[in-house]
Amino acid sequence: MIDVTAFEALCLACSGTTAVPHVDRVAFRTTRRIFATLAPDGQTANLCLAPEQQVLMCGAAPRAFAPVAGGWGRMGWTTVRFADVEAGLCRTAVGGAHLHALPPVKAPKKKTAHKKGR
């Protein structure tokens, strides 16, 4: 079990994360996008997981994790219930959501050989 303070600390410990208002929630975001939102009641949060990670989390702890209803859930948004989640599993889920929200890493440009004499 974790509480709202521990969840906020997990999110803010992720590099480059800021907390911002989002409708009636607090959202945690990277420079690219939001990866977690905290419900106003402080009992749950939503995490944006990769769909494969959503399947793993919901299968590993179905009382703690559930897809958000509708299209948001199909995109990987997952509700975590603080009363039912173990701290280590929540840390793993938050870390995965944070990685999923980071800007893509650009491959270095290849050096091309210039031909002489043309």
Can you put this structure into words, describing what you see?
Strands 1-2-3-4-6-5 form a 6-stranded antiparallel sheet. A hairpin with a 4-residue loop joins strand 2 (25-29) and strand 3. It has a single domain (4-96), classed as Aspartate Aminotransferase, domain 1, CATH 3.90.1150.30. It is built from 4 helices and 6 strands; from the N terminus they run αββββαβαβα. It has 118 residues and is of the alpha+beta class. Helix content is 32%, strand content 24%.
Low-confidence stretches: none
**CATH architecture, please?**
Alpha-Beta Complex
Which structural class best describes the helix and strand composition? alpha+beta
Number of domains: 1
Q: What is the string of helix and strand elements?
A: HEEEEHEHEH
**Count of runs of 4 or more consecutive helical residues:** 4
- CATH third-tier fold name: Aspartate Aminotransferase, domain 1
Question: Roughly what is the average pLDDT, rounded to an integer?
Answer: 93
- Helix fraction by DSSP (H/I, runs of at least 4): 25-40%
Based on CA inertia axes, which overall geometry fits? elongated
Q: What profile does the largest beta sheet have?
A: 6 strands, antiparallel
| CATH domain class name | Alpha Beta
- Give the end-to-end Cα distance, rounded to a whole number of Å: 70 Å
- What's the total number of strands? 6
**Beta-strand fraction estimate:** 15-25%
Rg over CA atoms, rounded to whole Å, is 18 Å
Strand order of the largest sheet: 1-2-3-4-6-5
